[in-house]
User: Which sequence fits this backbone?
């Protein structure tokens, strides 16, 4: 059995494919697992036939399981490219192909080692009830380029990326922010209690500043998104 | 008429979201929409909904009737009502 720890929660799994352990390498631990998962079934692996490379099937089937367990612990999976700068987290989100990874790349070009990528595709957002604050965590599910680090920092802002002819940024009203949060967060398709839990978390997440950055591929755009960390 | 399924209304920010056990759909509602949704949980009529709206909200009956009929016809088109 391998044990891996994601967003502070450790999972045990008897993996069927050796590649799964390799893909989880940065998250493996010797701790005793909090949760022992049943082995991934043939049906689950089959369901990932077309969406990923053969050696990733178990790894992606695992993703759905882990994300549900974490949701029950106030941890929400969000689609976006995220990085840490000056100890603070920023999450760029948008439908696939809009340029959020490109925007994150421009940050790395500008700030070099001062920027640490958290995850280029699917970071986790953890809500702390007591303080009402959010933390952003790395995950092993990180997109084709596999850009991720097993780190976590306080989440400072969300930036919705929109392609534009010029560069501008504005703070979204809750109602506008919500449309994006609903489409880019992981809300299970079944299991009503978990669906309600995800919506309850979005009710808290919408209080984090959500900006819309209309931008070109440029350092001017980076200067604008940088401001969201300073407020 | 009534809703075809049991919906749960969850406040999210300044909106309300209707969610149900049997469907993946999430339905984003305004305050008034959520109010109408809660009435449609039980068998009711457009007349009864309008009366309830007039008691709850301070707006001209005619305006509310137009908005309500538009909302109901949208729900009907989406197949969310049993009549």
Assistant:
């Amino acid at each position: 059995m391998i044990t891996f720890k994601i967003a502070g929660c450790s999972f045990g799994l008897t993996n069927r494919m050796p590649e799964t352990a390799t893909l989880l390498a940065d998250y493996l631990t010797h701790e005793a697992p909090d949760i022992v998962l049943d082995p991934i079934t043939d049906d689950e692996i089959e369901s990932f036939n077309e969406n990923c490379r053969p050696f990733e099937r178990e790894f992606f089937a695992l993703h759905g399981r882990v994300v549900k367990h974490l949701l029950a612990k106030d941890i929400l999976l969000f689609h976006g490219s995220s990085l840490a700068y000056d100890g603070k987290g920023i999450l760029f989100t948008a439908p696939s192909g809009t340029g959020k990874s490109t925007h994150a790349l421009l940050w790395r070009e500008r700030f070099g080692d001062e920027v640490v990528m958290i995850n280029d595709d699917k970071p986790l957002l953890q809500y702390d009830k007591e303080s009402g604050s959010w933390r952003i965590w790395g995950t092993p599910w990180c997109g084709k380029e596999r850009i991720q680090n097993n780190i976590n920092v306080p989440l400072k802002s969300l930036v919705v990326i929109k392609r534009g002819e010029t560069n501008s940024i504005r703070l979204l009203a809750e109602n506008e922010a919500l449309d994006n949060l609903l489409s880019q967060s992981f809300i299970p398709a079944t299991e009503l209690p978990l669906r309600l839990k995800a919506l309850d978390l979005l009710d808290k997440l919408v209080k984090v500043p959500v900006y819309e950055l209309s931008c070109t591929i440029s350092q001017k755009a980076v200067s604008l998104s940088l401001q969201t960390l300073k407020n | 008429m009534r809703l075809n399924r049991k919906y749960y209304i969850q406040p999210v920010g300044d909106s309300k979201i209707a969610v149900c056990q049997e469907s993946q759909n999430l339905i984003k509602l305004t305050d008034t929409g959520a109010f109408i949704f809660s009435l449609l949980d039980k068998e009711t009529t457009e007349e009864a909904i309008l009366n309830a709206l007039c008691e709850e909200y301070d707006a001209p009956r005619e305006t509310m009737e137009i908005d309500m009929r538009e909302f109901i016809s949208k729900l009907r088109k989406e197949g969310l009502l049993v009549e």
In short: Helices of chain A lie at 18-23, 42-46, 57-71, 100-111, 174-184, 192-205, 219-227.
